Amino acid sequence: GDSVTQMEGPVTLSEEAFLTINCTYTATGYPSLFWYVQYPGEGLQLLLKATKADDKGSNKGFEATYRKETTSFHLEKGSVQVSDSAVYFCALSDRLTNAGKSTFGDGTTLTVKP
Amino acid sequence: NAGVTQTPKFQVLKTGQSMTLQCAQDMNHNSMYWYRQDPGMGLRLIYYSASEGTTDKGEVPNGYNVSRLNKREFSLRLESAAPSQTSVYFCASSEELATSKGAKNIQYFGAGTRLSVL
Asked: What is each CA distance from B84 to A34, B14, B63, in whole angstroms?
């Protein structure tokens, strides 16, 4: 079945550092890929998405490129801020299998220190 | 701009008690979901409703029941709570399941219900 594997956390960075959170996936169909973010005490919210190979999703300085050849969707940001401290979830949604439901990774906790 | 509203925000139950978690969305979405979030296990789908009048089991349905009351509301019931059901529960909705193209399968989440079963 479909699965998502995320880089284990927690990740701790200093403000203005470069961020990479790795995400790889397994899917039998043609999935859409997502990054969701969860701030403390809140539900998840969409950060960015990509629907086909080589698409780049971007939002709030975060980027991720859909790499079909490496089945990856790594999240990057050039300069993190304290306000980026949150839990980040990689997810996929496969139109052809799993009835289109989303599959989530386990989440990676990011802490940014001033 | 309410989005997805869950009630209650916190609940403590004794083993064997029952309760219903409520969820409502005001975005006219067709699909709704219930997840549980446990440390180190990410999000696991309990039940989902692709459209009004239909419900289906997710990954971890045992011990739960759901009702899609109308297009707006999707409730989750614990008939006899167990300590293993201590978790944070999230309701979500999307315009459609991912059986169509584009942005219709983006999920919008409520703020969660923190449930403890003693």
From this structure: 29, 12, 10
Q: Containing H/E element for B78?
A: strand B74-78
Q: Comparing C-alpha atoms, which of A104, A114, A113 is closest to residue A37?
A: A104
Q: Taking 90 as the threshold, does the pLDDT of residue A98 lie above it?
A: no
Residues of A in contact with B56 (CB under 8 A): 99
Residue in chain B nearest A107 by alpha carbon? B42
Say if B61 is an interface residue toward chain A (CB within 8 Å): no
CB contact under 8 A, B102 and A99: no
Q: In this predicted model, what pLDDT tens digit does every residue of B47-79 receive, in sequence order? A: 999 888 899 999 899 999 999 989 999 999 999
B65-68 contacts, C-beta under 8 A, 24 or more apart: B66/B34, B68/B32
Q: What is d(CA A74, CA A48) in angstroms, rounded to the nearest whole number?
A: 12
Cβ distance of B109 and A102 shorter than 8 Å = no
Mean pLDDT across chain A: 91
| Residue A29 binned pLDDT confidence (cut-offs 50, 70, 90) | confident
Considering only CA atoms, which of B61, B68, B58, B64 is closest in space to residue B81? B64
Q: Do A89 and B99 touch (CB under 8 A)?
A: no
